[in-house]
Design brief:
two-stranded antiparallel sheet; about 375 residues; 13 helices; mainly alpha
Length: about 375
């Protein structure tokens, strides 16, 4: 009898064993005799997080290094197609559900094996890919039996495969169009604590938007607050929050909804999604920003510059992040004040025009208490 959790467990354990030497080979040139997990420790430092120890065999650490910008190393596993980031983000979500013992379906197993097979094939690991393909075929047979459908369905059939990042919505989550291109001033793109990050360099961590992947259908959102639907939605929201946080809960809900193919988010449904985010346990501050589990809002002193193409609305930037920017700019140039300081802050986040909404959010940042 086919058991989805057992099948997924087998494939994710195999994926971890196959990825470790692949990651090691890609990064050895930059690290010499050091473990590639050193990069993750340096990333934590550059993000203003308390560094922790990482295990080379930990799938979470492996997927993190595959999907996030590694300082001056960029995205060494990816090309312009972002195949690795897309498949990696899909697997981050599935790993989250797996490790939290969510209820997993036969279709979940099929998707997981498909992601694993394609990722390993991309890296030229044919043996690992073949093993994942065999598990995928078993899941397909079980799915056929479960739904009384023919087993000759192709990989691109109506099973709901997401891959490739070619899904679009007409509601790009995040930002108002800029009248002209605005880039941050170079002074905000470097950090002083370069001795702590010799591998990834002295560049400040810039804002990176979550690489959207469609992991399910709108029907999942329709099924809230049923248990299985809650588990799927929370796993997606948690990964986005860990990646983009601090992130406004409204943006988080829009991105989560888009992950289930929803292009427009109406207030009633947004309230349902906000409830799931809050019940998951991530900290949501008084201004409505959701924080990653490994950042302390009280002690965080970093900020993430971005240009005007980043797709992040100014009101989606945490007041704490804006306040940290203000402190940095004042320390870098004590003569900055008033409108000149405001202009420098706006430029840091790819903006020039000081609208009523922008002014209000700047004022909020000045009065934030933590």
């Amino acid at each position: 009898m086919f058991t989805p959790r057992y099948s997924i467990d087998s494939d994710l354990v195999n994926l971890s064993a196959r990825l470790e030497p692949i990651i090691d080979a890609h990064l050895r040139l930059h690290l010499g005799s050091l473990s590639w997990t050193r990069i993750l420790i340096e990333l934590d430092r550059s993000h203003g997080k308390v560094p922790r120890e990482y295990a080379r065999s930990d799938l979470q650490a492996q997927l993190k290094v595959l999907t996030e910008r590694l300082g001056q190393l960029g995205f060494p596993f990816d090309d312009h197609t972002r195949v690795v980031s897309t498949l990696g983000n899909e697997l981050r979500i599935m790993r989250n559900r797996w490790v939290h013992h969510d209820e997993l379906s036969v279709l979940d197993a099929w998707h997981t094996h498909d992601f694993c097979a394609r990722l390993l094939k991309h890296f030229g690991d044919q043996d690992g890919s073949d093993r994942a393909c065999a598990l995928r075929d078993e899941a397909l047979a079980a799915l056929a039996a479960e739904n009384s459908i023919a087993t000759h369905a192709s990989e691109s059939s109506c099973l709901g495969a997401t891959g490739g990042g070619d899904h679009t919505t007409d509601d790009a989550p995040g930002g108002e169009p800029a009248e002209e291109f605005v880039a941050p001033d170079g002074v905000v793109l470097s950090r002083d604590d370069t001795q702590d990050t010799p591998t990834i360099g002295a560049g400040r961590h810039t804002f990176e938007p979550w690489q959207l992947v469609v992991v399910g259908e709108v029907s999942v959102l329709d099924d809230l607050p049923k248990k299985v639907a809650k588990e799927q939605v929370r796993a997606v929201a948690a990964e986005i929050a860990e990646f983009e946080g601090p992130v406004h809960i409204g943006r988080l809900c829009r991105l989560t909804a888009a992950s289930f193919g929803l292009s427009r988010l109406f207030p009633a449904r947004q309230k349902k999604l906000e409830r799931q985010v809050r019940q998951y346990g991530l900290f949501v501050d008084a201004q409505g920003f959701v924080w990653p589990s490994d950042i302390d809002p009280e002690s965080w002193r970093e900020f993430r510059p971005n240009d005007s193409n980043a797709g992040r609305a100014f009101t989606d930037i945490s007041p704490v992040e804006i306040r940290n920017t203000k402190r940095f700019l004042e320390a870098a140039d004590p003569s900055l004040s008033g409108t000149a300081l405001d202009a420098a802050i706006l430029q840091t986040f790819g903006r020039k025009r000081r609208t009523k909404t922008v002014t209000s959010h700047l004022d909020l940042a000045c009065h934030v208490t933590h």
